[in-house]
Amino acid sequence: MVFLTRLASWVSMKLFYAPTSPFARKVRVTAHELQLGDRIELVVVNPWSDAELRSLNPLAKVPTLVRDDGQVLFESALICEYLDHVAAGGLYPAPGEARWSALLRQGIADGISAAAGRLFADEHRPANERSGSVMQRQAAAIEAGLDRLERDAGTLSRELADIGAVSVACALGYLDFRWPDRAWRDRRIELARWFDVAGQRRSVVGTQHHLP
């Protein structure tokens, strides 16, 4: 009983997530890399219908984190930075060029993930509800983002040592999950080589996407 009480007090945060979300995965990878995994209770939800999630987050989106003091955080960038604060730093370099580069790569990777999510959703709408111009715009954003990351691949941390590298790994993993047969690697040899190594991190392997 004493052990269970101590364990309950140690698991101090609660993360609401969906296993198909690249942004929720980014938070989970961040938690793993910061050695915070055993302090977070994971709660799988359907963002479209979960009443508890909606009561916590007015946007009813994942990821949503309930802190140990009961305060609620949402949006993956905020949650990741908060977790880095809890862990006393690690994934966010001090202000300067290294930090700006990491945050820029986070922005590019998150943009790829967002565009991919919208494109996937549009592809699965009835044909008469799709917007060809919107789909083309999202596809172009993904391609341009990947091209930019290819240019930077030589400076990306294979150990996921900053939030930029974490975000890139999650974006690429999401593309593989949604479109396993689309060959984004063909024109991005260096980025593909980077992901072949970074994708074997325990934090990445242990948070694989899957359908609910």
Automatic annotation (TrEMBL):
Pfam families: GST_C_2, GST_N_2. Residues 11-91 form the GST N-terminal domain. Coiled coil: none annotated. One of its GO terms (cellular component) is cytoplasm. SUPFAM superfamilies: GST C-terminal domain-like (SSF47616), Thioredoxin-like (SSF52833). This is GST N-terminal domain-containing protein. It comes from Sorangium cellulosum (Polyangium cellulosum).
